[in-house]
From TrEMBL:
<dbReference type="Pfam" id="PF01395">
    <property type="entry name" value="PBP_GOBP"/>
</dbReference>
<protein>
    <submittedName>
        <fullName>Odorant-binding protein 7</fullName>
    </submittedName>
</protein>
<dbReference type="InterPro" id="IPR006170">
    <property type="entry name" value="PBP/GOBP"/>
</dbReference>
<keyword id="KW-0732">Signal</keyword>
<dbReference type="InterPro" id="IPR036728">
    <property type="entry name" value="PBP_GOBP_sf"/>
</dbReference>
<feature type="signal peptide">
    <location>
        <begin position="1"/>
        <end position="19"/>
    </location>
</feature>
<dbReference type="GO" id="GO:0005549">
    <property type="term" value="F:odorant binding"/>
</dbReference>
Length: 163
């Protein structure tokens, strides 16, 4: 099953090409920091497989999910954190229906992202839940769509989880 991390990483890489210099540096820095912290040498296997298969890939997903405010600093899914972040994101305000759907899906996932332990597990579980929920509401979960573009821009406008 594919994960939203592929979407997130792709969106962040796209952001690096579309953003101004300061934003480009932030995006690249976040990706490199997660790659380094999880001993991941390349993103190619994640892109090729459309899922995380190794422990390093799964932990990289978790790291990125923390940066996207999907997981809290303890590596657990935190619907309140995600909803708070999305509620104050100017990009989401541009599409009220998408914002409403995102908030509903975030809440729905609170009951589904259970039984995982730490950011390496919870990032994958949360990403899958969010992707499936948004797809069920008619939103594509590909990095070229507005949903991920909105998340990417929201991420650029704030620091990683806990900052």
């Amino acid at each position: 099953m594919r994960t939203i991390l592929l979407v997130s990483v792709s969106a962040m890489l796209l952001a690096a090409t579309e953003a101004d210099d300061a934003d480009q540096m932030k995006v690249i820095s976040e990706i490199k920091a997660c790659m380094a912290s999880e001993n991941l040498d390349s993103l190619d296997p994640i892109r090729t497989n459309n899922e995380a298969r190794t422990s390093q890939e799964k932990c990289f997903i978790g790291c990125m999910m923390k940066n996207l405010h999907v997981l809290n600093s303890d590596g657990q899914y935190d619907s309140a954190l995600l909803k708070e972040h999305m509620s104050h994101c100017p990009e989401m305000a541009k599409d009220p229906q998408k914002k409403a759907d995102t908030l509903l899906v975030a809440e729905d996932c609170a009951a589904k992202v259970t039984g995982c332990n730490g950011y390496c597990e919870c990032g994958v579980v949360a990403g899958n839940c969010l992707a499936q929920g948004m797809e069920a509401k008619g939103h594509e979960t590909k990095y070229t769509t507005g949903f991920e573009t909105s998340w990417r821009r929201c991420m650029l406008r704030s620091g990683p989880s806990g900052t």
